[in-house]
Amino acid sequence: MTKQPEEKSKFVRVQELAEILDVSVPHAYRIMRKLNNELEEKGYIITAGRLSRKYLEERMYN
């Protein structure tokens, strides 16, 4: 299965998070760590340096 160029990954990496939120990379790391900790407390398996795009969209204000 080949990923199409416009198809987004299920996960956001820190650089993309910084761009989405218009914050510095160190601040994006802090936000990512906080959101991943929330997911871990709910029993989800998390990967450092990546954040579920779905969870980010749920937690972001618009």
TrEMBL record:
It comes from the Bacteria. InterPro entries: WH_DNA-bd_sf. SUPFAM superfamilies: Winged helix' DNA-binding domain. This is ICEBs1 excisionase. It comes from Sporomusa sphaeroides DSM 2875. The lineage of its organism: Bacteria, Bacillati, Bacillota, Negativicutes, Selenomonadales.
